[in-house]
Write a structure and sequence with these properties.
The protein has about 675 residues and is α+β, with helices and mostly antiparallel strands. The chain folds into 5 domains: about 50 residues, no CATH class; about 180 residues, 3-Layer(aba) Sandwich (Alpha-D-Glucose-1,6-Bisphosphate, Chain A, domain 3), CATH 3.40.120; about 100 residues, Alpha-D-Glucose-1,6-Bisphosphate, subunit A, domain 3 (Alpha-D-Glucose-1,6-Bisphosphate, Chain A, domain 3); about 120 residues, 3-Layer(aba) Sandwich (Alpha-D-Glucose-1,6-Bisphosphate, Chain A, domain 3); about 130 residues, Alpha-D-phosphohexomutase, C-terminal domain (TATA-Binding Protein), CATH 3.30.310.50. Helix content is about 40%, strand content about 20%. It is built from 21 helices and 24 strands. Strands 17, 18, 19, 20, 21, 22, 23 and 24 form an 8-stranded antiparallel β-sheet that branches. Strands 1-7-6-2-5 form a 5-stranded mixed β-sheet, sandwiched between helices. Strand 13, helix 15 and strand 14 form a beta-alpha-beta unit. Helix 1 packs antiparallel against helix 2, helix 4 crosses helix 8 and helix 5 crosses helix 9. The longest helix is centred in the N-terminal third of the chain and has 25 residues. The radius of gyration is 26 Å and the shape is globular.
């Protein structure tokens, strides 16, 4: 086995003997419990080398310091765990998954036992869980998503859970009998039929759906979504199908620390048995997964947003052919699911970008497998132009996000691709879904939810069209939780989103869902192109109706907590908070850090939850600009969000110019990138 070289910078060995011994002890303890023979043997070899006087001793100590030098363990952050696929308590590996799953299982059991005692119930509950996984792997370390999913399964089974390990196959991407009854749907006339998908993995939205559909106590998805290729993740859904949130996440994190020793010495052999004989995990697993998948696609079609514009009764073949869509899975799991979704909606399947259609854990054609990243769609654009496609749809690797681009051919300028911002798509989806749903449900109490760092445009649409809009903290654990609360109050939450191209259309999934969003976008596009209109034109119509909203979001790479603190403290100004930045007067300040501050409230306490680990600071300026800044909870990024609403009659170009000038001044004054060594990522 080749020697692993940590990707981060080397930590110089300048430590006391006691500190070095502590590192060695942590490594030895890890080796004692690690079931993975590759990582266990490698750490053992490093320990042997580190204890010798050979020339390799120094490099071995550096590697051990890199993996075990920091006290503690990987943080239970946004809906679970994310980290590099390396051994040690700060990586995402076999032992960490065992420990995390033991902690979650025990937490669920204790919570439900307390509830039963309070209700004087003696009947024991059968706990249930569903698990999905993507294609990520680190061959050098012998760590991969399927193996991690299997470890989660055997741990839960040991704890007494009934566990459903999702086992999708290419057969599930074929059409159901009802779908084939539509004359437009024939896999044989499709350039990319379902049989072309040799490897089918689980998209994250399916686990969110399955958690509620199967009435599970727990859903686990092994994926790092759009993180770099060296990472993996462990995403947790609660029984309501929503990502875990406070105080559940703190309770789980605390319980994990009590369950660090594996309960069973045979986990490794049980996992190997599952890998060699998949049916031993679940009897009829493929059939059960197929039935679940059919229910998922049925729920999409019956959500109230399917118009049938792609069926033969609504349009002719000639009209359908005016729209050509290229699709990229970004080397992720999405292609077969998009294929099935489009056939379910009686839409021609998009033309798949061949270099990126199959799952590939090395992500060879992109630096970062995130459709939002600059240049991530370059290959898709080149392919789309060759194929004569006017639209590009892109999922991130686990298919819970959706990006959209349109080929623009203006009268007086050169042609180009317009990549729609997350907020622009949020306004488009919100308005379109409202229009469709209101037509068939005129008396419904309609609500929509978005993160507070998203554009204010959806709020403006809600005010004009008289439906409820609620903003909440960034992240779908907060958005989903708020949606559930609104549903309990009798609202139909038909749409929710976050600016990072995450959209939830309907109520069948309580999380972002790039598959449903892509299908609904397909119908909208077809309806527009039938009338010789464009998506860009639809957006401009919204601007003309509700006002111009211009935003510019981005981030700086930052993994230094001291820099984050320094930037935030600059805004806080010793508790007195800034009153202007670069000559721009501040109207109000909201700080969702600890202890929290809101200048618009009489008691100065914000209504949204505060957080020490991921504080969000918002500045409202008198000229209408809104500026948010917050450190990411999952990536080494310090994010910012800037939006300017144009006054009535002011052209978009003028608002853009004003925002550009103000953005440069705000970023320089607040972040001080040169002084703080910050590198812009966008």
């Amino acid at each position: 086995m080749s020697k692993y070289t940590p990707p981060a910078k080397k930590v110089p060995i300048d430590r006391s003997t006691a500190e070095e011994e502590a590192i060695l002890e942590r490594a030895k303890e890890w080796v004692a419990y690690d079931p993975n023979p590759q990582t266990r043997d490698w750490i053992q070899s490093l320990l042997v080398e580190a204890s010798s006087l050979s020339s390799s001793s120094s490099s071995s100590k550096e590697s051990l310091t890199e993996l075990f030098g920091k006290v503690g363990r990987i943080g239970f952050g946004t809906a679970g765990l994310r980290g590099p696929m390396v051994p040690g308590p700060h990586g995402l590996n076999d032992l960490v998954v065992i420990q995390a799953t033991q902690g979650i299982a025990r937490y669920i059991q204790q919570q439900q036992q307390q509830e039963q005692q309070q209700r004087n119930q003696d009947t024991p509950k059968q706990w249930k869980a569903v698990i999905g996984y993507d294609h990520r792997c680190n061959p050098k370390m012998g760590i991969d998503s399927f193996t991690l999913a299997c470890y989660a399964m055997v741990v839960l089974q040991h704890a007494g859970f009934e566990v459903f390990l999702l086992r999708p196959s290419s057969a599930e991407m074929a059409l159901t009998t009802a779908e084939k009854d539509c004359p437009n749907n024939d896999d044989d006339d499709d350039d990319f039929s379902s049989s072309a998908f040799s490897n089918v993995f689980v998209p994250t939205p399916l686990v969110a759906f399955a958690t509620r559909d199967l009435q599970c106590d727990l859903g686990i998805m092994i994926t790092a979504s759009h993180n770099p290729k060296q990472d993996n993740g462990y995403k947790v859904f609660w029984s309501d199908g929503c990502q875990i949130r406070s105080p559940i996440d703190q309770g789980i994190a605390s319980q994990i620390l009590q369950e660090l020793i594996p309960w069973n010495d045979n986990y490794y052999f049980q996992v190997k048995l599952i890998q060699q004989h998949p049916q031993s995990a679940n009897s009829n697993a493929i059939q059960k997964t197929c039935e679940l998948v059919n229910r998922y696609f049925t729920s999409i079609k019956t959500s109230g947003f399917y118009t049938g514009v792609g069926s033969t009764t609504a349009t002719t073949s000639a009209e359908k052919s005016t729209l050509k869509i290229a699709y990229t899975a970004m080397h992720g799991v999405g292609a077969p699911w998009i294929h099935r979704a489009y056939r379910t909606f009686h839409l021609p399947s998009p033309i798949m970008v061949p270099q990126q259609v199959q799952p590939d854990s090395t992500f060879p054609t992109v630096t970062y497998p995130n459709p939002e990243e600059t240049g991530a769609l370059s290959l898709a654009m080149h392919f789309a132009e060759q194929q004569g496609c006017s639209i590009i749809l892109a999922n991130d690797p686990d298919a819970d996000r959706l990006a959209v681009a349109e080929y623009i051919i203006p009268k007086s300028q050169s042609s180009h691709w317009q990549v729609f911002q997350g907020d622009q798509l949020g306004a488009i989806f919100g308005h379109y879904l409202f229009t469709i749903f209101k037509k068939h449900h005129p008396t419904a109490k309609i609500a929509m939810v978005a993160s507070t760092v998203s554009s204010q445009m959806l709020s403006a649409i809600a005010k004009a069209e008289n439906f409820t809009f609620v903003d909440t903290l960034p992240g779908f654990k907060h958005i989903g939780s708020q949606s559930l609360l609104l549903r309990s109050q009798g609202y139909k939450v038909i749409f929710s989103y976050e600016e990072a191209i995450g959209y939830c259309c309907g109520e069948h999934v309580c999380d972002k869902d790039g598959i449903t969003a892509a299908a609904i976008m397909g119908e909208l596009l077809l309806s527009l192109y039938k009338k010789n209109q464009t998506l860009g034109g639809y957006l401009q119509h919204l601007y003309d109706t509700y006002g111009e909203f211009v935003s510019s979001n981005g981030y700086y790479f930052c993994d230094d907590p001291q820099v984050i603190t320094r930037v935030l403290n600059r805004v806080r100004n010793g508790g007195r908070y800034l009153t202007d930045v670069a000559g721009y007067s501040i109207a109000s300040v909201r700080d969702l850090g600890i202890p929290g501050y809101d200048s618009t409230r009489q008691n100065f306490q914000p209504t949204l939850p505060t957080s020490a680990s991921s504080p969000l600071v918002t500045l409202h300026f008198h000229n209408g600009c809104v500026f948010h800044l917050r450190p990411s909870g999952t990536e080494p990024k310090f994010k910012y969000y800037i939006e300017m609403q144009g006054k009535p009659g002011v052209k978009r170009e003028v608002v853009l110019h004003e925002l550009g000038i103000m953005k440069a001044a705000l970023l320089e004054e607040i972040f001080q990138p040169t002084k703080n060594g910050l590198v812009s990522g966008s």
